[in-house]
Amino acid sequence: METCKLGGTALTVSRLGLGLAALGRPGYINLGHGDDLHAGRDPATMEGQCHAVLDAAWSLGIRYFDAARSYGQAEAFLARWLAARSISPEAVTVGSKWGYTYTAGWQIEAERHEVKDHSLATLRRQLGESDALLGRHLKLYQIHSATLESGVLENRAVHEELARLRDGGVCIGLSLSGPNQAAVLRHALRIEVGGQRLFGAVQATWNLLEPSAGDALRAAHAAGLGVIVKEALANGRLTARNHEPAFAARRSVLEGQAARLRTTLDGLALAAVLAQPWVDVVLSGAATAEQLQSNVAALSVRWDEPCADELRSVAETPADYWATRGGLRWN
After folding, report:
1. How far apart are CA 113 and CA 68, in angstroms?
2. How many CB atoms lie within 10 A of CB 215?
3. Handedness of CA 177, 325, 207, 108 (dihedral sign)
4. Domains of the chain: which residue ranges?
5. What pLDDT is recorded for position 318?
6. What pLDDT is attached to residue 111?
7. Sites in the chain below the pLDDT cut of 70
8. Count of Cβ atoms closer than 10 Å to residue 7 Cβ
9. Tell me, which fold does domain 3-325 have in CATH?
10. pLDDT digits (tens, 9 = 90+) for 291-315
């Protein structure tokens, strides 16, 4: 597995990383998530499955792992795996996020699965929780789904607290979500504390259906930020699990190019991200070792311009993409 520096930071990442959103809680919005947890959804069984996927990731050369306070017990599962396998902080890069609190009570269906709060009090509480679990393994700490509306990019007290963490050796980043990712990123790039840019990395959605943040991410990478891409498979919509009649025409185009490049739909979608020169690491959201193995095959896909040209036609408007994502069922 090829590794690289995360932008201009000192962190080393594998080109493919593993995100734990689907492995740390019993309910998630990925298509077919419930089928992936057929062994059981109790915490002990899910931890065993999470560790099995982490083992597979390690054996495949994956050295970047992504969690969040709102991913159920993802941080705890990851921390116990790191300890059980005696993996040193120097051997791996771990990122996590603050700003959402998990509120589903280990239920698949809940009135609210997570509550967003980008206040200083939440940062301090969740940083303490993350640090207690991950300690020196935590190398990247990100604002979870920063938006202009939440006020976090105007909160000087939060910026100063994050800068203290930065000055202590932890890279500070932000993750983005929604149709205004580019505008939020451009705003974030202007934030400085102590004469230094606050953010060293950004994690954003970019995929064949929603490429609108591409220019902003390219500019951020040119400015020295590390770029992590999430939701490359559009929560399963860019996999063989998507049987929506309204998606049939787009699926046909995707399947044609996947066949030409001798890969799967997930391999094609991940290869599209890896082909972007401004991407440092793309996250797999695999919930099984088999899915992860399929995802890793994207590294050997020979992406070409005819494919890129053909697949521009499958992109949706940002408004349509995010409306569809917002309607995905927790399962």
Report:
1. 14
2. 11
3. positive
4. 3-325
5. 97
6. 87
7. none
8. 23
9. TIM Barrel (3.20.20)
10. 999 999 999 999 999 999 999 999 9
